[in-house]
Design goal:
Blueprint (H helix, E strand, L loop, with lengths): L5 E2 L6 E8 L8 E8 L8 E8 L13 H12 L10 E10 L2 E10 L3 E14 L2 E13 L3 H14 L1 E2 L9
Antiparallel strand pairs: 1-9, 2-3, 3-4, 4-8, 5-6, 6-7, 7-8
């Protein structure tokens, strides 16, 4: 989506929706795009990209720590199994930095409810006239459907890129 400042390869048979996530006094409104397979009746296979403004002093992903710290924070904020083994469990599978992006792979499960494989990508860039944007891609595939959908989701994750990366201008 050039208007949002990113590109992603959409597989045949996938739909797209674009909108905004309203903010409040402390959180700015964020733009979002969601992608999902039109042939699948559920809502638990999806890829979403959210853009939001960040402070002018956040000029690289290093402002958030390295790729491992980014991934660790995602998992740490999600995992609740440390206090109750029957609550949500999140496990970090892998992190890596590729170019100007952080890639994270992790799993999330809730016993008796769901078991998902997730991917996350973080990047910083801008859209001319809107400076210092954080791009976050999140992708989810139920573990039981990995054989059918994982290749398409991973291809989308790997194709994601900012169309205006690294040209940050102080606000």
């Amino acid at each position: 989506d050039e208007a949002m400042g990113f590109s992603i390869d959409l597989p045949a048979g996938w739909e797209v929706g674009v909108g905004e996530i309203s903010g409040d006094d402390f959180t700015p409104t964020r733009r979002a795009a969601g992608f999902y397979p039109s042939a699948y009746a559920g809502n638990d296979i999806n890829v979403s990209v959210v853009t939001q403004s960040i402070a002018a002093d956040f000029t690289s992903l290093g402002s958030f720590g390295d790729d491992y710290q980014w991934g660790f924070n995602i998992v740490q904020e999600t995992d609740r199994s440390w206090k109750d083994p029957n609550d949500v469990r999140a496990e970090l599978v892998d992190t890596k930095k590729k170019g100007d992006q952080y890639f994270v792979e992790y799993t999330v499960s809730l016993p008796g409810e769901y078991d998902r494989h997730l991917y996350s990508v973080a990047a910083i860039g801008n859209i001319p006239g809107r400076y210092n944007l954080l791009y976050t891609l999140s992708a989810s595939v139920p573990t039981a459907l990995m054989g059918e959908y994982n290749d398409a989701v991973v291809a989308m994750v790997n194709s994601f890129k900012c169309t205006h990366p690294g040209t940050l201008v102080p606000v």
